[in-house]
Write a structure and sequence with these properties.
The two termini are 19 Å apart. The protein contains six helices and 15 strands. The longest helix is centred in the N-terminal third of the chain and has 13 residues, at 35-47. The protein has a single domain, classed as Beta Barrel (Acetoacetate decarboxylase-like). It is of the alpha+beta class and 305 residues long. The radius of gyration is 18 Å and the shape is globular. The protein has helices at 35-47, 61-66, 94-98, 168-178, 226-231, 269-273; strands at residues 15-18, 25-28, 76-92, 105-107, 114-128, 140-151, 156-165, 182-191, 195-201, 208-220, 235-240, 245-252, 257-265, 285-297, 300-304.
Length: 305
């Protein structure tokens, strides 16, 4: 299975920086980007390029638990809140997932199985650390397609195939600053007892619809369980093509508390658009997380492309 092609984003460059360890200047694309965030990201990418090891070692339970704690190597640059997260997961053949990953990442497995996930949810209070929330920017919908990986240092995390979003500035900024494969989408939602959620990615006429709600009381994941493996992820990875580098971003928040999910309707269209055509109609695992506040830290370069 080949890695799906990603569409680019055109924008006006507002500053050019030289990153230590790279052979060319890099244009940072950001409309009126906050100078504190840009300087923090520049500093981290310039000074924290890490040594690659010949082979990756799969993370043990100790490494997975340690990932919950910020490693202190990067400054805190953003605040977010994630709400009404529906986790839909399908078992997948590890070798097929590995073929889609960039150099420097290894597919992570639970009891020999890789997983592909589709996660619709809501972003709230999204803002840079030094800027207040803005009503026209800080709240929007997001839907991602993901799998689970670890890097050459054995840090477990998430690899995103796509992130659909109905906030154009957030979509553009995440691509420019973090190298994440965000796509603009037309999205609608209603939340009461049930969540009714829809998303149509730009360039497609197929609408992904979801109807879901949580059931019962929430509980923390048990270390070593499948829920722990799927949910407790505090690093994300992205291939920043303009920089020619694999980036790692850490987030921190309270441990996941999940509930059973009742799902009346779901869609595999987002995964199909990313090149995954063999998903069964029903996922192998579902759950819901009500939400929590999140801190996001500046990216670090972990391996060259």
């Amino acid at each position: 299975m080949s890695q799906p092609k990603r569409s680019g984003v055109r924008a006006k460059a507002v500053c050019t920086i030289k990153l230590r360890g790279l052979n060319r200047p890099v244009i940072i694309l950001s409309p009126r980007a906050n100078s504190n965030i840009l300087s923090a990201i520049t500093s981290c990418l310039g000074t924290l390029r890490e040594r690659s090891t010949p082979a990756a070692m799969a993370p043990d339970l100790k490494a997975r638990l340690e990932a919950r704690v910020p490693d202190g190597d990067a400054p805190h640059v953003m605040h977010q809140r994630w709400e009404s997260l529906l986790f839909l997961h399908w078992c997948y053949e590890p070798a097929q997932i590995q073929e889609t990953l960039p150099a420097g990442l290894t597919v992570d497995t639970f009891q020999g199985e890789a997983y592909l996930g589709i996660v619709p949810f809501f972003m709230r209070n999204v803002r840079p650390r030094v800027v207040p929330s803005l009503p026209w920017f800080s709240s929007f919908q997001e839907l991602n397609v993901r799998t689970y990986v670890y890097d050459r240092d054995g840090r477990p995390g998430i690899w995103f195939y796509s992130l659909d979003c109905n906030q154009s500035l957030a979509t553009w900024g995440a691509r420019a600053l973090f190298g994440l494969p965000y796509f603009r989408a037309k999205m609608t939602a209603k939340r009461n007892t049930w969540v009714n959620y829809s998303s149509t990615r730009a360039g497609s006429d197929e609408c992904a619809r979801f109807r879901y709600r949580g059931l019962g009381d929430a509980s923390e994941t048990e270390p070593g369980s499948r829920e722990f493996f799927l949910l407790e992820r505090y690093y994300l990875f992205s291939l920043h093509r303009p920089l020619g580098a694999l980036l790692r971003v850490q987030v921190s928040h309270t441990p996941y508390r999940y509930r059973a999910a009742e799902v009346e309707h779901l869609s595999t269209i987002p995964a199909l658009l990313d090149g995954f055509s063999s998903l069964a109609p029903a996922p192998d695992h579902t759950c819901l997380v009500d939400g929590f506040d999140v801190k996001v830290y500046a990216p670090k370069t972990v391996a060259e492309r």
